[in-house]
Automatic annotation (TrEMBL):
Region of interest called Disordered, as start-end residue ranges on this chain: 218-244
Source organism: Streptomyces poriferorum
Keyword flag Hydrolase: yes
Phylogenetic lineage: Bacteria, Bacillati, Actinomycetota, Actinomycetes, Kitasatosporales
Keywords (A to Z) from UniProt: Hydrolase
Name the record gives this protein: Alpha/beta hydrolase
Pfam families xref list: BD-FAE
Length: 345
């Protein structure tokens, strides 16, 4: 081995070690911070657990937990929570307090799981989350759900899948065979938390000191595709939300920490720019000083809140950037505007 090749090999080994450390820090931080308790009497919420929504050919049954607010008149709008975990650890319970955010405020919250990339490669994960949306529409009448008002909210890999839900509705190519085929899988609003948007450019968009994926067989994109993006450019493109932006879409709220070492913030900027070019309604919130995974901590309910810069586009027109703060109200107001009938009608 030449000295240069040996040096390159040592550099790659060092980077893979750094990748492992960053990923382990993220995994250990999932839901380790307890959110503050409620400051006012909470509305009653009924939780229906372990509802089977799909039985795909590999990986066994897929289940969801459904949080239903009590005493809410009329069909309740639905928010589907999509957990992160690098497409490898898509377990229920990995996320914010769904009873408080936002079942106690009148939303039906669906906490779903999807197949790990260790069980099935792309596009199984998209097929699974689409099956969950179709299932919720199939039981809407029995469960008091508003089948016309469904939003998707995801963290990391879940944010990636939430974005794809908002961009592939009505395209039969991506529906899969997860059941309830008579119902559509489109959603009416998307909250994408720091999800990968362009898999072919993830390494180019990585911050200094951040994860480099294509040299590391243990990296999430490698696991999702079955190899590095350089060797799988077509599925990498198909799995990239930016590739599916072709015209006006469901409204998007995109949030990303500007210190994210796992998914560079440029990824969300790429998606925002694509939505802007397509004339969609989109808001990008840059969260100052935040790393990866803040939806899995108390960040939405923290005092004082993290500072943000807010970028907005509608019908191809950019609004002036403004300062803001990361709060649960930011996410709730977005869903209120697009899912509650008295706001949207």
């Amino acid at each position: 081995m030449s000295p240069r090749a040996e040096a390159d090999g040592l550099a790659e080994a060092e980077q893979r070690g750094r990748n492992a450390t960053l990923m382990q820090t993220y995994v250990e931080g999932l839901a380790t911070t307890s959110p503050p308790g409620p400051t006012a009497p909470a509305a009653a919420v009924t939780v229906l657990r372990d509802l089977v929504f799909s039985e795909p050919g590999t990986g066994g049954e897929l289940r969801l937990d459904l949080y239903l607010p009590e005493g809410v008149p009329g069909p309740r709008p639905v928010i589907v929570w999509l957990p992160g975990g690098g497409w490898q650890r898509a377990a229920r319970g990995m996320g914010p307090h769904l009873g408080r955010l936002f079942a106690q405020h009148g939303y039906a919250m669906a906490d779903i799981e999807y197949r790990s990339s260790r069980t099935a490669l792309w596009p199984a994960q998209l097929h699974d989350v689409k099956a969950a949306v179709r299932y919720l529409r199939s039981v809407a009448q029995d469960r008091g759900l508003d089948a016309e008002r469904i939003g998707a909210w995801g963290s990391s890999a879940g944010g990636h899948l939430a974005a794809l839900l908002g961009l592939t509705g009505g395209d039969p190519v991506w529906e899969g065979n997860g059941g309830h085929a008579a119902y559509p899988s489109d959603v009416q609003a998307v909250v994408d938390g720091y999800g990968p948007a362009d898999l072919l450019h993830m390494d180019a968009d990585s911050l200094p000191g951040g994860v480099v994926n294509d040299i590391d067989p243990s990296s999430p994109p490698w696991g999702l595709l079955g190899g590095p993006t350089t060797e799988h450019p077509e599925p990498a493109s198909q799995a990239s939300p930016v590739s599916h932006v072709s015209g006006p879409t469901a409204p998007f709220l995109i949030l990303h920490g500007d210190a994210d070492l796992l998914v560079g913030p440029r990824q969300s900027e790429r998606l925002f720019d694509a939505l802007h070019g397509a004339g969609s309604e989109a808001t990008l919130v840059s969260v100052h000083g935040a790393g990866h995974g803040f939806f899995n901590t108390d960040a939405l309910e923290r005092t004082p809140p993290l500072a943000t810069t807010v970028h907005t586009t509608r019908s191809g027109e950019r609004a002036q950037d403004r300062s803001g703060a990361l709060t649960s109200g930011l996410v709730e107001r977005f869903f209120d505007l697009h899912l509650r009938r008295h706001f949207a009608d």
